[in-house]
Design a protein that fits this description.
The complex is a heterodimer of chains A (402) and B (354). Chain A has 402 residues and is an alpha/beta fold. Chain A contains 13 helices and 16 strands. The longest helix of chain A has 30 residues, at 224-253. With 354 residues, chain B is of the alpha/beta class. Chain B has a domain at 45-286: 3-Layer(aba) Sandwich (Rossmann fold), CATH 3.40.50. Chain B is globular, with a radius of gyration of 20 Å. Classes of the chains: A alpha/beta (402), B alpha/beta (354). At the A-B interface, β3, α3, α5 and β9 of A face β1, β2, α3 and α5 of B. β9 of chain A pairs parallel with β2 (86-89) of chain B.
């Protein structure tokens, strides 16, 4: 707080990485753990400059690996500090060991992820597999689709994760390049708004010599399940906190987000795309284009994947005849033999009385943009399935088929 | 708002550093941050070290315990031996988690979020953590110079998982990953990684020292010097493991002295101001390595040539400390002058007890 510059509300033109760095500054983080990997690095570059300029009073640590980044974050959060870290691609996975210990010790560490494909072969482009591979580790997780939403999601995530009813870490994800490196208009708030929205971090049991506690002692097998149940419940109970935080955010900042699903042109839609992240921006454009041609197509964008809004997904997707899941991730040998999102959609719809047909589209892979022609192609596949009343095949690799 | 200056603790250095374990020192603090309530073995070297270290540090202390025997045997859920805050971390996270705690206190004190003197932040890493899987994380913490003390309690093996070889296991040491057999009569073929010198050479701005549970006051003083040093410090402490070394339980402290007297655990300090080693520590006597080896089942299979190799290694250590070697130790490095430890059958019987 000491040297953080107090600012008035203003519009700036910044990319997603810088928006994330700005959010960390507004949150007045105490400890930052950095390690370079593209494309998220730009966030840490921006934060390094803020610390060097005296705009943000924080310990800026250049770690020796992503594993160390997350361990530093774990240690600092355990001592009672507000912590910010991040990564991309294989870096997310290098730190894999720490995800469960951090959520298990109920430390609300925040991690920014700018997605990158996993190796091989060292592709810089965005695929969501990096973060999605950690989705069941007890972290609150969701994607933004532009820089403004990235900024907002960081503040909202701190508010949710640090709530004493939740105390869980958060992965605030954005697509590499499409969000992280594309500049957009971002409204930076008044410092007072952030102060009103985000109370100071106060963990109930930090490592404080005046109130000694032991964190993470060895347990016997029968002592494990009660702790796992508590963590599972925290995840479930976070749903109400997530909704409350989004309502509060709207009141204070004036921007309204449905915490779970964004619906676009779905009122009379018969076929819809279901996706996460930045491809929503191109999807909105494509849908308008297709609407002009008379196609009844819409989009449902998942904003929070953990906790997964099963009932909302069921309720919303049951309105349609066909759902086309745009994966942007690899689920090798998975249910659809395509991506891992398909299974999550199917499971949520299993109990529906009006189950739509579901297709999985492997599109936007390797960080390629999904072009208009491909949206038409995918929509045609959905319309064909609707006419036929059944799907031809579950998974389509877009661009590799006639 | 102006930043708040961080106040740091200065702990007094105790007198009579070279006195034995059974000597009563009235300067010893009465505080006991590490109390009964753990499940370590009788005579456990690492837990003796834990008690001395935490006693030297006092109550304004935070302990970090990466996975190892001092995690598993010390802490049992709903029962804790720690009177100060303690946190488990992953075995590879020794330096990094500790750095996080230290950084948090720097920021929180500076920003007025926590009031008080900067706590002693001590990491207790086993040699598996410190020399293998957590080496990079510790090097990172030392390099960045966080105000913390990282201790390697060196029992020369992965003891918690059932006695496996680490990079600190001595040449000839039998473990379940380095068993002796007809093709590998010596068991462990490699000499140990010189971890403490790596730390001193690579991070010369840090206070680095070696110590042994055989010299408690010296150990406690090195802990205090490490804590008083503003910045990172590293201490490597010999802590015998009855279970893995296979010796008579009451002899832990004796081994802690013999290992130094036999030249197998050189005692030194790295002075970061002078950028020089301090080799002034001298044990009461010098002995051949066989006197240390013969007390431990893990060396029971060694042949004369292996003992000679270890004596040669010890002699090199003495020379590095600048000590003139007596003729007897030079003779003891020649296999002709030595006998085998035990028969293969006897050694195998001992091996079964691990």
């Amino acid at each position: 707080m000491a040297t953080t510059s107090v600012s008035k509300k203003r519009m700036v033109r910044i990319n997603g990485c810088v928006a994330s760095a700005q959010a960390a500054k507004y949150a007045d983080v105490d400890v930052i753990a950095a390690y370079p990997i593209r494309p998220y690095t730009a966030t840490m570059m921006a934060l390094a400059q803020m610390v060097a300029n005296g705009e943000l009073d924080a310990e800026y640590i250049v770690a020796d690996s992503e594993h160390s980044q997350l361990s530093i974050a774990h240690g600092a959060a355990s001592a009672g500090a507000r912590v910010f870290t991040g990564s991309s691609g294989v870096g997310v996975q290098f730190a894999y060991e720490l995800y469960s210990p951090i959520s298990g010790s109920r430390m609300p560490v925040q991690m920014m992820i700018a997605d990158r494909t996993l190796d091989p072969p060292g592709d810089f482009g965005s695929e969501h597999t990096d973060a999605l591979s950690t989705r069941d580790m007890g972290w609150i997780m969701g994607w933004s689709c532009d820089a403004q939403e990235a900024f907002d999601n960081h503040l909202i995530a701190y508010r949710i994760g640090e709530d004493p009813r939740v105390l869980l870490p958060q992965m605030v994800c954005q697509d590499g390049f499409f969000v992280s490196h594309i500049t957009g208009d971002v409204e930076l708030p008044d410092a007072g708004q952030v102060k009103e929205f985000l109370p100071p971090y106060k963990h109930p049991y930090p490592l404080d010599p005046r109130h000694p506690v032991s964190h993470g002692p060895q347990i016997m097998p029968e002592q494990g399940p009660p702790l796992q149940l508590e963590r599972a419940r925290a995840m479930e109970e976070s749903m109400a906190v997530i909704e409350q935080a989004h309502e509060e955010f709207e009141k204070i900042f004036g921007r309204k987000y449905d915490p779970w699903l964004e619906e676009f042109m779905t009122d009379d839609a018969e076929v819809v795309f279901f996706l996460q992240g930045a491809h929503a921006v191109t999807a909105r454009f494509a849908i308008k284009h297709m609407r002009d041609k008379g196609l009844k197509v819409g989009m449902v964008r998942l904003r929070t994947i953990r906790p997964y809004p099963t009932d909302r997904v069921n309720e919303v997707l049951s309105k349609f005849k066909v759902v086309g899941v745009i994966e942007t991730n690899m689920g090798l040998g998975s249910v659809s033999s395509g991506g891992s999102l398909y299974a999550e959609v199917c499971a949520a719809l299993y109990e529906s009385q009006k189950r739509p047909l579901i297709l999985s589209f492997m599109a936007g892979m390797g960080g390629e943009a999904i072009v208009l022609k491909e949206f038409y192609w995918m929509t045609q596949k959905m319309v064909d399935a609707q006419k036929r009343g059944k799907i031809e095949k579950r998974t389509h690799w877009v661009g590799f088929e006639e | 708002m102006a930043t708040i200056e961080v106040q740091r603790q200065i702990l007094p250095i105790l007198g009579s550093p070279n006195q034995g374990a059974r000597f009563y020192n009235p300067e010893l603090p009465s505080s006991e941050p590490f109390v009964p309530g753990h499940r370590t073995c009788a005579g456990c070297g690492p837990s003796i070290q834990y008690r001395m270290t935490s006693k030297a540090a006092g109550d304004n202390t935070i302990l970090v315990g990466p996975t190892g025997c001092m995690y598993v045997a010390n802490s049992s859920y709903l029962c804790t031996p720690y009177n100060v805050p303690w946190a488990h971390t992953q075995i590879g996270s020794a330096g990094s988690f500790t750095a996080g705690v230290a950084a948090a206190y720097e920021a929180m004190i500076r920003k007025g979020k926590w009031k008080g003197e900067f706590p002693n932040i001590i990491c207790e890493a086993g040699d598996g953590s410190a020399s293998d899987i957590g080496l990079a994380s510790i090097s990172g913490a030392l390099y960045r110079n966080h105000d913390c003390l990282i201790i390697c309690y060196d029992n020369e093996q992965y003891a918690n998982t059932g006695i496996q070889a680490s990079s600190r296991t001595p040449y000839g040491g039998m473990t379940t990953f380095s068993p002796p057999g007809p093709l590998v009569p010596e068991g462990k073929k490699l000499f140990p990684k010189d971890l403490a010198r790596m730390m001193a050479a690579g991070h010369p701005h840090c206070y680095v020292a070696t110590a042994s549970v055989g010299y408690p006051i010296d150990l406690m003083n090195k802990v205090r010097k490490g804590l008083n040093h503003k910045g990172a410090a590293y201490l490597m402490v010999y802590t015998p493991c009855q279970k893995g070394f296979v010796y008579e339980t009451p002899r832990s402290i004796d081994l802690g002295r013999l290992v130094v007297e036999c030249g197998l655990y050189p005692m030194w300090e790295w002075n970061p101001e002078k950028r020089a080693y301090d080799y002034s520590f001298r044990p009461a006597s010098m002995r051949p390595v066989s006197e240390y080896l013969k007390l431990q089942g893990r060396f029971g299979h060694l042949h004369a040539e292996h003992i000679a190799s270890l004596q040669k290694f010890a002699n090199e250590q003495w020379r590095m400390l600048g000590v003139q070697l007596p003729e007897a130790l030079i003779q003891a490095a020649d296999a002709k002058n030595l006998v085998n430890m035990a028969s293969a059958a006897q050694a195998e019987a001992v091996a079964q007890t691990i």
